């Protein structure tokens, strides 16, 4: 195995263990054992458990952020952008369940490597820009875009955490209901919301 292949193998093993057991429940001994190497090999590549965890978290955050940025970069109606963003988060949860479990867990090194809340703030900034433009063009106070962006992103993220375990209703239905609440508000909910666009 080349050094690059070994590093990737250790990342894959570490990612699986951190998702299963969390940061505190994972040991370098177990990472080394599952990878079929000695502990010094893990230390050589990452300097320790904290270094391995930091790389795993950074990679997961980048994958999620890339998906959200792509979803929000389409010049589309704001309702469709909201739908794409919600769908992007649920796609990530579905496709990278282990990664999402790692991101939403607390750990002693989260502050140095980034946190799920800091990632959500990055996403909220993107949403704020979009909302600010929409608010201005429709005569609303653009200064409120930050508040609405935090509310929307927080609602979708918390729903995503719940859906991680529940997995019901189906993803498209969850997206439709999220957008229904965001777009129509409680006083104007559609009785049977449907998605308008497909990812």
UniProtKB/TrEMBL annotation:
Keyword DNA damage: no
DNA-binding region: 27-46
Record keywords: DNA-binding
Entry annotated with the keyword DNA-binding: yes
Organism lineage: Bacteria, Bacillati, Actinomycetota, Actinomycetes, Pseudonocardiales
HTH tetR-type domain boundaries: 4-64
Alphabetized Gene3D superfamilies for the sequence: Tetracycline Repressor, domain 2
UniProt-recorded name of the protein: TetR/AcrR family transcriptional regulator
Organism: Allokutzneria oryzae
PROSITE patterns from the UniProt entry: HTH_TETR_1, HTH_TETR_2
InterPro entries, sorted: DNA-bd_HTH_TetR-type_CS, Homeodomain-like_sf, HTH-type_TetR-like_transc_reg, HTH_TetR, Tet_transcr_reg_TetR-rel_C_sf, TetR_C_32
